[in-house]
């Protein structure tokens, strides 16, 4: 596979390192509007062909696939251009800023017949893959309850860098710079972590979002710090289970931790992923009576990079697809509507794109039982 890298920032370095470790993958070109950053990146990875625009790279054309590591708001236009050129696309998450754009990208890729995948990186967590296998095999019985959390501390710690002075963090706090906050940034990860691990789709969601004051006047330089810092969701899953999903950047003491607990009638599982490793524990059989949890061994799994390269080689689509990521974006879009309206919405799946992102309010009905937001993915 001859690979083009679109965008040469921090995540691109991680991606290229992963791709170059795969036999048969050659990084043949890089694109960035910042020439200094582009040259530093290309020099580091010995990439000869360098382009200031995607149009130049497409005109050159001597690549099979591209990894799109541009800022979130650029994913839509650039991915559509690559698809129109017949190139396979590996896109960073989130797929787009809203469901309408994500769906357009999905349908374009499917019509063109190109391989399309989204880098939901926590699919690389072997304990998550094993947990899903155990759920699907029936080892937990019927799933009743799911808990999932994504905890970061970079608003209270400088371990990641100083968000007060560094643009690479400040933009994530500003809706005017294309951010949907923690919900849009890591929400897609924990939604996928929960639904994929529990082997079911999210069916209904009600969300609360919170933005905390972080600077005088809520602004630092050109950055208005108005994006959400924390969210909580109560969800129903398609298999009938009830769930709670939450994430925050104010989790003091947690650099980057994802946790998933799946409770079934025959047993339970817990997946924990931290920067220093991942674990899977379970409680089954006689251990249920004493609430004893035991470690479960897992085997290594293929990375998203490996599976994308193999999909391009064979022409056989693999997960996570653009369509899956678009469905997750639908949940995120509706969560924002849920917080804004604080009332019940009856939304048919076919009406979701226009009603939530097209400037029209979805049809709503009052309900004395309290607020909820219906969604089918």
TrEMBL record:
InterPro entries: Gfo/Idh/MocA-like_OxRdtase_N, Gfo/Idh/MocA_oxidrdct_glycsds, GFO_IDH_MocA-like_dom, NAD(P)-bd_dom_sf. This is Gfo/Idh/MocA family oxidoreductase. It holds the Pfam family GFO_IDH_MocA. Residues 350-377 are annotated as: Disordered. It comes from the Bacteria. Residues 129-270 form the GFO/IDH/MocA-like oxidoreductase domain. Keywords: Oxidoreductase. Residues 2-119 form the Gfo/Idh/MocA-like oxidoreductase N-terminal domain.
């Amino acid at each position: 596979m001859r690979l083009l890298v679109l965008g040469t920032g921090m995540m691109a370095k991680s991606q290229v390192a992963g791709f170059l470790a795969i036999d048969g993958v050659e990084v043949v070109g890089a694109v960035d509007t910042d020439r200094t950053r582009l040259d530093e990146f290309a020099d580091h990875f010995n990439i000869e062909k360098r382009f200031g625009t995607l149009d130049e790279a497409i005109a050159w054309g001597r690549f099979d696939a591209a990894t799109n590591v541009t800022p979130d708001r650029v994913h839509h236009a650039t991915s559509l251009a690559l698809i129109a050129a017949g190139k396979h696309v590996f896109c960073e998450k989130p797929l787009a800023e809203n469901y309408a754009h994500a769906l357009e990208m999905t349908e374009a890729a499917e019509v063109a017949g190109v391989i399309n995948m989204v880098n939901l990186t926590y699919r690389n967590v072997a304990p998550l893959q094993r947990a899903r296998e155990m759920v699907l095999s029936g080892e937990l019985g019927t799933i009743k309850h799911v808990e999932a959390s994504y905890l970061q501390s970079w608003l209270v710690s400088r371990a990641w860098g100083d968000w007060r002075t560094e643009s690479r963090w400040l933009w994530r706090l500003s809706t005017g710079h294309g951010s949907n906050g923690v919900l849009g940034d890591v929400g897609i990860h924990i939604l996928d972590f929960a639904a994929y691990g529990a082997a079911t789709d999210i069916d209904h969601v009600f969300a609360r979002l919170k933005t905390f004051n972080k600077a005088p006047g809520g602004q630092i330089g050109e950055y208005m710090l108005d994006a959400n810092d924390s969210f909580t969701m109560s969800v129903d899953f398609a298999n009938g289970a009830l769930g709670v999903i939450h994430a925050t950047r104010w989790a003091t003491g947690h650099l980057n931790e994802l946790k998933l607990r799946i409770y079934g009638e025959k047993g339970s599982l817990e997946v924990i992923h931290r920067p220093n490793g991942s674990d899977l524990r379970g409680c089954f059989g006689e251990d249920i009576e004493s609430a004893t949890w035991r470690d479960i061994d897992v085997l290594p799994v293929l990375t998203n990079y490996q599976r994308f390269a193999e999909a391009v080689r064979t022409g056989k689509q693999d997960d996570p697809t653009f369509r899956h990521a678009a469905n997750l974006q639908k949940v995120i879009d509706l969560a924002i509507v849920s917080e804004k309206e604080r009332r019940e919405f009856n939304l048919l799946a076919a009406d979701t794109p226009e009603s939530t992102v097209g400037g029209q309010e979805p049809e709503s009905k009052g309900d004395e039982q309290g607020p909820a937001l219906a969604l089918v993915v």
